[in-house]
Design brief:
single chain, 12 helices, alpha/beta, 16 strands, about 425 residues, 7-stranded mixed sheet
């Protein structure tokens, strides 16, 4: 059955319920993907500059073959023994620093963050959690409380355990060495200890992607890590968006920011779209969680998921995709700088590897966010065949994080199109 856009939207509302979001004023009906390209139902081709879930490219042949071969052989749960989960955990943890050597596999990043928070409680005996105030970490009853930008209407009483610190903003409020951010966390730790819950953990994206990925030097998180450890809490780094080589300089953004977290949370890009998430920590922390909670996940760590996830690691290594991210990301920064010199609406540029973008303003002197114009630009780019989005506290930062095989030729197509769209925007 082929539906029109209007019929698709009507049927979505009828069958899926209200308030199911879509991208763009004119939503896309995508039917095919390959590499960094997507095709809609009318056969039009789009350059995908947004989707990090197909990390090694849409319909990557290595991943597709791994899924098909394993699905044709066996798929079951982890109460039966299988080599795939052990091989994957060994390969994944080998990319991280000591003592991150153990892992729990889940189906989603939300589940993984939920386990991370419960682990912090099990280890510290405290329940107080600190998060940044413009982020998103998932949608379980507990994890959803960490989001103010996508906050739920009800909180099950869990909001009493959450405190927020201002997300860093390198454009409006520079914090060159991370000490101001660390001081803000220290104040909230003191508040949690005074109010009763005590301090269990700080959870952050180490590259602050949802907050507009501010421009910070390598090692920027060292001061806050010291504050957290001195207070007896755990540092949880949510690498769902920033991990697997996307920053170009390192395999993991937390390494770029100069810290070894107590817990690393993984999700979206782990298996190129196959639903896989994970929690990495040392064996002592994983053991504490296992002892405190009789946790079992029917689908987490199943053989097909592990085969897909292993194929992603192999593709990253074999195709040298981390170095590609560094190379193309450097070119992207140069192209962004050239656009900023030409178009006054660009107030700031930023990014590392295959995370890059620009903050749009109506006035460079006042740094007033160009919210409405950002929406107009994103929708115009969609009509021109390029998919990207926006994010940040003011929703005025272009969010560009394409699949990792993205090339300089793809980047040039993106920026040539963006130049035309900015010129049309006036």
């Amino acid at each position: 059955m082929t539906r029109s856009t209007a019929q698709l939207l009507a049927d979505r509302a009828r069958l899926m319920g209200p308030n199911v979001s879509t991208f763009y004023d004119d939503p896309l009906h995508i039917v095919k993907g390959e590499g960094v390209w997507l095709w809609d139902a009318a056969g039009r081709k789009y350059l995908d500059c947004y989707n990090n879930v197909p990390h090694v490219g849409h319909c990557n042949p290595r991943v597709v073959d791994a899924i098909c071969q394993q699905a044709a052989t066996l798929n079951t749960h982890t109460r039966y023994l299988h080599d795939g989960i052990l091989d994957y955990i060994a390969a994944l943890t080998a990319t991280m620093a000591d003592p991150l050597d153990s892992m729990i596999l889940t189906c989603t990043g939300s589940e993984a963050n939920d386990i991370a928070l419960r682990t912090a409680e099990a280890v510290t005996g405290k329940r107080g959690i600190i998060a940044t105030d413009a982020t998103y970490h998932g949608n379980t009853s507990l994890v959803s409380q960490l989001s103010q930008s996508n906050a739920p209407a009800v909180g099950f009483g869990l909001d009493q355990y959450i405190r927020f610190v201002d997300a860093p903003d390198s454009y409006r409020h520079p914090d060159h060495d991370g000490t101001l951010f660390a001081a803000g966390v220290a104040r909230q730790i003191a508040a949690l200890n005074a109010d009763g819950p005590g301090f269990a953990a700080l959870v952050i994206c180490p590259y602050f992607l949802n907050e507009g990925f501010p421009d910070h030097p390598d090692g920027w998180l060292k001061p806050v890590a010291e504050v957290v450890r001195n207070a007896g809490g755990l540092l949880i780094c949510d690498e769902v968006q920033s991990g697997f080589g996307r920053v170009g300089t390192h395999m993991w953004a937390h390494a770029k920011m100069g810290v070894v977290p107590d817990i690393v949370v993984l999700g979206k890009p782990m298996a190129n779209g196959h639903p896989v998430g994970g929690v990495v920590a040392n064996s002592e922390l994983i053991g504490a969680f296992r002892k405190a909670y009789r946790y079992f996940n029917t689908f987490g760590g199943n053989p097909v998921s592990c085969a897909a996830a292993m194929a992603v690691l192999q593709e990253i290594a074999d195709k040298d995709l981390v170095q590609n991210a560094r190379h193309v990301g450097g070119h992207a920064r140069k192209r962004l700088a050239a656009l900023a010199a030409k178009h006054d609406i660009i107030g700031d540029i930023r990014g590392s590897g295959l995370i890059f973008g620009a903050e749009l303003v109506t006035d460079r002197a006042t740094k007033t966010p160009a919210n409405d114009l950002t929406d107009v630009l994103i929708n115009d780019m969609r009509q021109r065949g390029v998919i990207l989005s926006k994010l940040g506290r003011h929703k005025n930062a272009l969010k560009i994080r394409p699949p990792m095989p993205f090339s300089i030729a793809h980047a040039d197509l993106l920026f040539d199109t963006l130049d035309d769209a900015l010129t049309a925007l006036g």
